[in-house]
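Hi there. Long-time user, first ticket. I'm pasting a complex I've been working with (about 625 residues overall). I'd like to know whether the download I got is complete or cut off, because the file seemed smaller than I expected. Thanks.
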Amino acid sequence: MSFRFLPDVALADVAFEAESDTVDGLFTTCARAITDIMVDPETVRPTVTREFELSSPDLDRLLYDFLTELIYTKDVDSLLFRTFEVKVDTRRVSLAATARGEAIDRERHRLRNDVKAVTMHLFGIKKDGKNWKTTVVLDI
Amino acid sequence: MPVSDAIKQVSDVSWEIPTSYKPGMNVPARIYATKKLLDAMDSGVIEQATNVACLPGIVRYSYAMADAHWGYGFPIGGVAAFDTETGVISPGGVGFDVNCGMRLIRTNLRFAEVKPKIKELVDLIFKLVPAGVGVKGSQNFNQSQMADITGLGVRWCAENDLAWEDDPLHVEEGGYIKGADISKVSRQAISRGVSQFGTLGSGNHYLEIQVVDPDRYLDRKLAKEFGIVHDDQVMVMIHCGSRGFGHQVCSDYLRNFESGMRSFGIEVRDRDLACLPFSSKDGQDYYSAMVCAANFAFVNRQIIVNKVREAFATVFHREAEAMDMHLIYDVCHNVAKVETHSFDGTRAKLLVHRKGATRSFGPGHPDIPAPYRDVGQPVIIGGSMETGSYLLVGTTKAMEDTFGSTAHGSGRTMSRTAAKREVRGAELQRKMLERGIYVKAATMDGLAEEAGMAYKDISEVVETMDRAGISKKVAALRPVGNIKG
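Hi, the file is complete. Here it is re-exported in full:
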């Protein structure tokens, strides 16, 4: 499971490419990437647990909806997450995820950029040989 | 055909790409730029402006202003007007941050009085106006108020002692766009937005204490029309938008637009150009929700103004009224609005998308507040935090040429990651202080990303639009204090 930032993709925003040998791993990696954009994850303690359950019309939408839900949780509940366990049911196009983190602490957390939305730009999950890949461009 | 063969110079600051350049173009593309700006423009601008030209119902031109750079679907700095019956509405032509915009407030303070207190002032504003990741505002509205707030915007604020009586008059559209319908906004957008009033956000958003800069430009006669009467008068400029509310509205509707296009047989060259007929139910629903978000942003900037007035009163020990802290104006630069325009011998209601572009209405227009109507609409164009900004005025030529539209800012030339590689935030902060600009930022990374060298030359952008006759320069404003998210 890995992600890397794409510095030349979005001038005003942030883009990353994520890759994993499982679809569960891809979703987990994307969630970690979003966290990494917003905060140094090492400074976030995994003391609060939040469960997510989603279903969507297709797999791309499921990832879009999941990442949008994380952004929503950051704004409404002030939660940032350090770890994620995501289980995707590709047949039902649904997921169950457990995220662990804590409320934003401006003294202790090394905060970075505020992610405001997932764009549709270049968005789409692809299978490349054994690996699942996607590009995500985020509005900052 | 390569664009270099297709592009024709129309004037020293404008260029045209004909419909023959790309199959499906309904109108030509018109780009406002000096040769220097055009040569430096990323190729995405041409690609996107000509893609927009293919959209159904577009009239006259697909425009790119002098600060244009590529965005999602529409270029940032893009303007496109559509027939309201046959044309489309596109969230990509508005942007995620609905009514990201600029507000300019004057004071009667002179720089000599403010300079020794700039640190105290900026530090206090930084406390009163939250900025950065996941911030919440101190204004405790509740969800049941959101229909009224997003319906009546700054007018609601004035009715509830959250604005001065003349504040709504000095905001585009009188402080609220008509047509809001909160029932078209999701529960998630309302939940995200309700606690964010009075917050600055992050990225390229800022709050800046500025001084009139006559060495760079000042038309004293025009400036006086907007209450600028001293060569060293202190101003405050705010750049922010509709926060999580607007972003969620866009996210919610983008999902529907993509799937909805198929049922209308609309095909676009770029999925970010997802659009629907403006006359369709989904098109109208998005418009109503977008208007809620636009009015949210007007209110957000109003709450911030209240905090700025409070900070000045605390630091200078007098009431904000005594310091003449009235609004000069507030402009949207990410919005789609129904406006009536004359063109090609006819007069019609059009849906004008301005994405990273500013309204620039000329003298006599009834939508300009009465005190400014003889002069024209104030236009606020923001530069980077190192180079300063401009106040300009709208023109009759803008009404004739660009549906009353002009540029909005400098436009980025470098990605955030590339900027951080070149510049260290702490070092930049120190250098700016040496140059007389005290910056307080929520994060040093965020500061580095906003370094001046990541942006086009604001003066060249503004000069281009002035030479094109689209917006005339009034005053250059240089930064002396800055808050960044």
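A couple of notes from our side: Chain B has 15 helices and 19 strands. The longest strand of chain B covers residues 471-484.
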